[in-house]
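Raw record, unedited: Methyltransferase-like 26
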Amino acid sequence: MQASAAAERNKGPILAVLREYAGPGALRVLEVGAGAGLHAAHFARALPRTRWQPSDIDPQALRSITAYAEAMRVPNMLPPILLDVSQGWETWGGTQPATLDLLVSINMMHITELRCTEGLFKGAGVLLKPGGVLFTYG
């Protein structure tokens, strides 16, 4: 499993804000650019009524995400999917329009090309339910 000191430090404050959007009901969440998977596992475990779908473009990150899910025993975290956010939403693992409650992207926009941020916003416009939230950090 990969880990960064920054991810460890900011997982609590980010979770506090995510809780404001989680509400009492079940939520469907897609995390774009989940990286090592520490955040995905931490958030899914803390928000058990979510169905958390992590994703990343890097196969090494996908392996790390899987390791976190197994080590932390997070049943509501789905197996990670390979996702290139710069590609059309139609390639995002079969996610259908207006089915997501939350689309989460942490520490992606400032380290990727502009076309990735554009793809994220285009995908959010199609995949989020009415009232759904695009949650970004970093």
